[in-house]
Design brief:
Layout (H helix, E strand, L loop, with lengths): L18 H25 L3 E7 L5 H9 L7 E5 L14 H4 L8 E5 L8 H4 L5 H20 L3 E8 L2 H13 L9 H7 L2 H15 L6 E5 L3 H17 L11 H11 L5 H13 L1
Parallel strand pairs: 1-3, 1-4, 2-3, 4-5
Helix pairs in contact: 1-9, 2-9
Length: 278
C-alpha cells in the first residue's frame, strides 16, 4: 500500500480536448472493451468493477459510456442504495455476494461494499468496531474473489467542491435533472471534511496488490470518462492476447447447408465488385 494524497489536493485540471477527438478516443476504447468482453465470454472470465465517488462526480455518465455497445445479457449494473428489509440484519457483504457475476459475465457496481467505511461510518449506521473491522473483511473479500479468478477493478471518481456545486445547481435549474437531487445530498455536502478523511483511510487501507484503487479526477467529464475507460481496459486486458474468434466448424457447416455460404464468400464478392468498378 502506498501513501495517497489528500483528494482535494490532487491535480484536477486537464488540458483541452475538442469533442471530435473525445468521440474518436471514446469509440476506440469502447471497441477495446467490447473485444475484451467477447474474450471474457469465451473464456468464462468473471469481472467485478466497483465505482465509488461523490454525488455529481459523473459516475452514472461514466457507467453509461462503459456499457455502450456491450452485449447486455452478460453485463449487469448494480446501483447500490440503502439495504432492503430482507438485507437488513445480515452481514453487509451478503447482498454483494448475491450479485457477483456468473461465468463470463461482468458485474458493475455503482457504489459498493465500501459504503460500510464511508456513509455507514459517517452517519453512524454501524458502530466504530464494525466499520474499523470492515477494512480487513473487505480486503479478505476481494482476495477471495481474485484468488478464484475474478478480475477486480476499483475506481474512485473525485470532483472538487466548486465543480460539485456547479453541477448541483445545474440539476436544480433543470426540471429534467431535479430528480437527481435529494436532501441527503446536502447533508453529505455539509460533511465533506469527514468524507475526505474516510476516503483517505479507505485508500490507504484497501489499496492492495490484488485489488488496487484508481483515482479519477472528474472536473472535466470528457477527460474523466476517457481515463476511466482506459484504466478498465488496461486492467481487464492485463496478460491477455486478444485473437480473432475462430468460426466453429460445426456452425460453418450448418451455414453451408442452410444457405450455401462458406467463410470468405463475402470477401470474394466485395473483391469482384471492386474489380468491376475499375
Amino acid at each position: 500500500m502506498g501513501k495517497w494524497p489528500v483528494l482535494d489536493k490532487i491535480e484536477m485540471i486537464d488540458g483541452p480536448i475538442d469533442e471530435a477527438e473525445y468521440e474518436h478516443q471514446l469509440k476506440r476504447l469502447q471497441k477495446k472493451l467490447l473485444e475484451l468482453k467477447n474474450h471474457h465470454r469465451r473464456t468464462g472470465t468473471r469481472v467485478v468493477i466497483g465505482i465509488e465517488g461523490w454525488d455529481a462526480a459523473g459516475k452514472s455518465g461514466l457507467i453509461s459510456r462503459l456499457v455502450t455497445g456491450l452485449e447486455p445479457k452478460s453485463v449487469h449494473v448494480w446501483r447500490t442504495s440503502a439495504p432492503t428489509a430482507d438485507e437488513q440484519g445480515r452481514h453487509y457483504l451478503w447482498r454483494f455476494w448475491q450479485r457477483l457475476p456468473a461465468r463470463g459475465d461482468w458485474a458493475i457496481f455503482d457504489r459498493t461494499w465500501y459504503g460500510r467505511v464511508l456513509v455507514e461510518r459517517i452517519e453512524c449506521f454501524c458502530n466504530d468496531d464494525a466499520w474499523k473491522r470492515a477494512y480487513r473483511e473487505i480486503n479478505e473479500f476481494e482476495r477471495q474473489l481474485t484468488d478464484d479468478g475474478v478480475r477486480v477493478v476499483k475506481l474512485l471518481v473525485h470532483v472538487s467542491a466548486e465543480e460539485q456545486k456547479r453541477r448541483m445547481i445545474d440539476r436544480l435549474s433543470s426540471p429534467y435533472k431535479r430528480y437527481k437531487i435529494s436532501l441527503e445530498d446536502f447533508r453529505n455536502i455539509g460533511k465533506r471534511k469527514e468524507y475526505l478523511e474516510a476516503y483517505d483511510d479507505m485508500l490507504e487501507r484497501t489499496d492492495t496488490d490484488q485489488a488496487p484503487w484508481h483515482v479519477v479526477a472528474s472536473d472535466n467529464k470528457m477527460h474523466a470518462r476517457l481515463k476511466a475507460l482506459a484504466i478498465i481496459a488496461d486492467e481487464l486486458g492485463r496478460g491477455i492476447k486478444l485473437t480473432e474468434h475462430e468460426l466453429d466448424p460445426a456452425i460453418a457447416e450448418a451455414a453451408y447447408k442452410a444457405w450455401g455460404w462458406r467463410l470468405g464468400d463475402d470477401r470474394k464478392k466485395n473483391s469482384k465488385k471492386d474489380g468491376d468498378k475499375k
